[in-house]
Design brief:
By secondary structure, the protein is of the alpha/beta class. The chain is 28% helix and 36% strand. It is built from 9 helices and 13 strands. The chain has a 7-stranded mixed sheet with strand order 4-3-2-5-6-13-12, sandwiched between helices. Strands 1, 7, 8, 9, 10 and 11 form a 6-stranded mixed sheet that branches. Helix 8 crosses helix 9.
């Protein structure tokens, strides 16, 4: 079995063991799962939350972990010049497909790069940067890792520029629990497809593990089986507030919301403008 099987549990693990030898284990951000992710619509409230704050900052925007461009293209359509960075080539290919469907003027406002965000040139030129889809949890393994990310973003922003991200708020607990499996029967590329998602919340190690199983029936009747897993750090609001306090950015606002059925907090941070007269 692949190393990815070490993160499988519950229903998805049972299915993977049943079809062992036939199952393809992959990254959630590549291959068939990237295509599935591309079918999920961006919640309108999420789009509006990010663009509303960006309009208050300026037109030069940086999207970290831009993925398939579900938000990138929305920004471009609304007149922003947006740079997107991601590590997944498959996701960026989907973004380019979306970009090709845009009016030419909007498409020209999008530039992307397959790169580690920590390798980005620190030009301090962006008016607004954002990190959507609760992805902040991938970077916030501990205080040092979180502050490193925040300080990197600070160096990418102009003085007075702002950074926005959403943090998932998990329930409290001191155990390890699994959610009920969520079953989604769909058509993908014209093929009958069954997707099962289940999550395990480990309050001891403070890791949320998501499991995906995708079964696709091909035109010739053969069935393909795919599994993937994700791991996100369960960061509390209090911890995130502490990370921000130890960084070069300052907290401007926290906005409660709900995305795809989960409670989140939108964090809006600002890079101090030391050229402004504080009146001191």
């Amino acid at each position: 079995m692949s190393d990815l099987y070490t993160d499988l549990f519950g229903t998805v693990r049972s299915i993977a063991e049943l079809y062992d030898g036939q199952v393809v284990a992959s990254d959630i951000y590549s291959g068939i799962f990237a295509e599935y992710y591309d079918m999920l619509p961006a919640p309108r409230d999420e789009i509006e939350s990010y663009t509303r704050e960006a309009f208050l900052c300026g037109r030069k925007v940086l999207e970290l972990c831009c993925g398939n461009g579900r938000l990138t293209t929305e920004f471009a359509k609304q007149g922003f010049f947006i740079d997107g960075v991601d590590m997944s080539g498959d996701m960026l290919a989907l973004l380019e497909r979306r970009k090709a469907d845009l009016p030419a003027a909007a498409a020209r406002r999008i530039h992307t790069a397959r790169a580690d965000l920590f390798a980005l040139e620190e030009t301090a030129c962006y008016d607004f940067a954002f990190l959507p889809a609760t992805t902040i949890c991938l970077f916030a393994k501990n205080a040092d890792a979180a502050i490193r990310l925040l300080n990197k973003v600070s160096r990418l922003l102009r003085p007075g520029g702002r950074f926005m991200f959403d943090l998932r708020l998990y329930p409290s607990g001191n155990d390890c629990r699994m959610t009920e499996p969520h079953v989604n029967p769909i058509f993908m590329n014209g093929n009958r497809t069954l997707v099962i998602f289940q999550e395990q919340l480990d309050f001891i190690d403070r890791i949320a593990v998501g499991n995906f199983y995708l079964q696709m029936t091909m035109p010739d009747g053969t069935v393909r089986h795919h599994v993937a897993a994700t791991r996100k750090n369960m960061v509390t609001e209090k911890e995130m507030d502490g990370y921000i306090a130890g960084s070069d950015l300052r907290l401007k606002q926290k906005i409660p919301a709900e995305i795809w059925g989960s409670s989140v907090l939108y964090y809006l941070l600002e890079k101090p403008d030391e050229t402004q007269d504080t009146g001191d």
